[in-house]
Write a structure and sequence with these properties.
By secondary structure, the chain is mainly α. The protein has helices at about 10-25, 40-65.
């Protein structure tokens, strides 16, 4: 269960943001980011491929740095 303690001098907006982050982190509510524009399928595919490449490079770097 997510709860946030609010100090007397803390702005309400700040505490709401903290609560929102905590709820998202715990997986109670997920905020879906909507695309406000059309994205071509090839662009989506390229973005996903680049993300996969970055993930693989990071994994390789981590693997090689722990060995050496």
């Amino acid at each position: 269960m997510a709860y946030v303690r609010v100090d007397d001098n803390e702005p309400l907006e700040k505490s709401i943001k903290r609560f929102k982050r905590m709820v998202e982190k715990e997986g109670i509510i997920r905020e879906w980011k909507k695309r406000e524009y059309y994205e071509k399928p090839s662009t989506i595919r390229n973005r996903k491929n680049k993300a996969m490449e970055r993930k693989q490079m990071k994994k390789n770097r981590k693997l090689h740095s722990s060995k050496g």
